[in-house]
């Protein structure tokens, strides 16, 4: 995949996407978001990939949407183009997504993190939605997904002041799954992604869909969705294999069928 602003690689069954625009702290411009969407589509369609890791550099996961690219836009342009709608490609990814975050994850960078499923943060990571400081507001899901991740009081604090939060506060607040020393970040992300990618893909995709349904529906509807999906897994060979392997005290050989 020939890209200019991201790098991709595959380790085992894990696809890696590394944001690579160092002179702008990985600020997300339209071209970069397009490249991320293409890479996700390719990994999504690849039967040998079970999980994708999204990461940046030691200094920045991404310091936001590209402010310089956006400054002169007009409302009619943003409306007609449906500016920022293309970012939904990250949220629409059906395979599990692990964010490996070091340094700044601000504005749109933080919003991309909020679209990921497991968030591994280096102790150097700093999260924030500072759009209020530049005359706008979060526009790629920040006001909605942050509330669901950390609750209203913390989300209001971050959105209204634009302050940054350290990795430890982000973990306490529920934005981050685990915090690790910066030197361990990539290995930890690979280990988590590997653990996910060696499971049955039908299973991990179904789990992701069910957990995300919790944000979209009532408890009773969500519980029904979960139970029906759970029941549906009994139609898969991987369920038979997983339970047989347990009984026979061996590792399961999942076939995604
Ligand atoms: N957009 C464009 N360029 C950026 C961005 C950005 N978001 N962030 C950093 N850069 C550039 C800087 O302009 C600088 O470039 P240059 O060397 O050419 O001047 C380079 O990256 C390095 O940055 P700094 O020199 O500022 O590095 P510091 O270590 O001094 O500071 C900070 C790091 C604190 C992260 C600082 O760069 C900063 O505050 N960045 C902006 C953070 C921000 O406000 N992010 C939110 C942006 S808005 C958003 O994401 C969603 C709303 C949608 C708005 C529409 C946009 C498409």
TrEMBL record:
Q: What does this protein do?
A: Could possibly oxidize fatty acids using specific components.
Q: Which Gene3D superfamilies match?
A: 2-enoyl-CoA Hydratase, Chain A, domain 1 (3.90.226.10), Lyase 2-enoyl-coa Hydratase, Chain A, domain 2 (1.10.12.10)
One Pfam family recorded for the sequence: ECH_1
Question: What top-level branch of life does the organism fall under?
Answer: Bacteria
Q: Signal peptide: which range, if any?
A: none
What's the top EC group for this one? Answer: lyase
Q: Which UniProt keywords apply?
A: Fatty acid metabolism, Lipid metabolism, Lyase
Say yes or no: keyword Lipid metabolism present: yes
Q: Which GO terms describe its biological process?
A: fatty acid beta-oxidation
As one GO molecular function, the record gives:
enoyl-CoA hydratase activity
Catalytic activity, EC: 4.2.1.17
What the entry lists under InterPro entries is as follows: ClpP/crotonase-like_dom_sf, Enoyl-CoA_hyd/isom_CS, Enoyl-CoA_hydra/iso, Enoyl-CoA_hydra_C
According to UniProt, the name of this protein is: enoyl-CoA hydratase
């Amino acid at each position: 995949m020939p890209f200019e602003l991201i790098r991709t690689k595959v380790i085992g069954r894990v696809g890696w996407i590394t944001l690579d625009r160092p002179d702008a702290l990985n600020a997300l411009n339209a071209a970069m978001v397009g490249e991320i969407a293409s890479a996700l589509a390719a990994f999504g369609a690849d039967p040998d990939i079970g999980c994708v890791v999204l990461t940046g550099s030691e200094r920045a996961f991404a310091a936001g949407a590209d402010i310089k690219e956006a400054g002169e836009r007009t409302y009619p342009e943003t409306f007609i183009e449906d500016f920022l709608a293309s970012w939904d490609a990250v949220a629409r990814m059906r395979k599990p997504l692990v964010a490996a975050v070091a340094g700044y994850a601000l504005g749109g960078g933080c919003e991309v993190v909020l679209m990921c499923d497991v968030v591994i943060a280096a102790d150097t990571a700093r999260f924030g939605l500072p759009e209020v400081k530049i005359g706008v507001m979060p526009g790629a899901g920040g006001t909605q997904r942050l509330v669901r991740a950390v609750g209203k009081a913390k989300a209001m604090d971050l959105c209204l002041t634009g302050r940054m939060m350290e990795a430890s506060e982000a973990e306490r607040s529920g934005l981050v799954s685990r915090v690790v020393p910066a030197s361990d970040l990539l290995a930890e992300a690979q280990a988590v992604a590997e653990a996910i990618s060696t499971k049955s893909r039908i299973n991990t995709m179904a789990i992701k869909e069910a957990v995300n349904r919790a944000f979209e529906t009532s408890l009773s509807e969500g519980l029904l969705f979960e139970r029906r999906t759970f029941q549906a897994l009994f139609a898969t060979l991987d369920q038979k294999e997983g339970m047989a392997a347990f009984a026979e005290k061996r590792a399961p050989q999942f076939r995604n069928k």
